[in-house]
Amino acid sequence: MLTRHGAIRLSFLTKNENKISEIPIIKIRPNKSQPRKVFNEKELSALSQSITENGILQPLTVRRISASEFELVAGERRLRASVLAGLRKVPCIVVKCSDKESAVYALLENLQRSDLDIFEEARGISKLIRRYGFTQEEAASRLGKSQSTVANKLRLLRLTYEEQEWITNAGLSERHARALLRIEDEQMRREALSKIISENLNTQQTDELVSILINSAPKTEKGRGSSKAVIKDLRIFVNTINKAIDTMRLAGIDAQSNKKDTDNFIEYTIRIPKRQQSETEKTA
Catalytic: 76? Predict the structure, then answer.
């Protein structure tokens, strides 16, 4: 059961909490709220070999869902490895808990192992909130985390699924992912991610790259619910101005330009000495 402070307290069905039951694997269903979706095959194989030689040292935790069936609460890696080892029965402790408590416990068990990837963890928290109507504060309390930590983890899901896969496969950290979230443009974000991976940038270098990209991006303004560029191709205009200045300099005019970039506009100031202007007009 969940206590009034949000902690989980599982009720054992047996009078003796240390009693372990041997339950046929065929009668155990996987936990539908299991946050982990990817299991390392090499690690499972190694665990299976260990189980074959030493047996299961830590019993699985299950709950009864019918007269003849149980649902796994914690221990899916051990269950999968036991199947690989050819076991027909596994040692289990039977607990009494609701769907909600089972989901929270499954997530907690994985979080305490500290080997969930950052997006599996975020999706697990998101599922708790959506399926059981938790607020972020309630989810944070039950998981033993601060509300801000939960909010930051949920923000990671704003990245596309493809971006999440890139980050996971490259072994990037949560801080890498949070830095990328500062880039709103999806194409720019993917280009940044590609550079981070190819150049093996650390978190500080990633923060610097993101800042450079954001500061160099064209300013946009929002109108009627959509964003549009203030100037569609600023480079065309800049090049035109630069060419005009170069032409004047080639003609012997000491033209000088100054560019000022503000939040509202880009200002170009061009200075032409009057003496040279008069002499040019006389020559013409």
Answer: yes
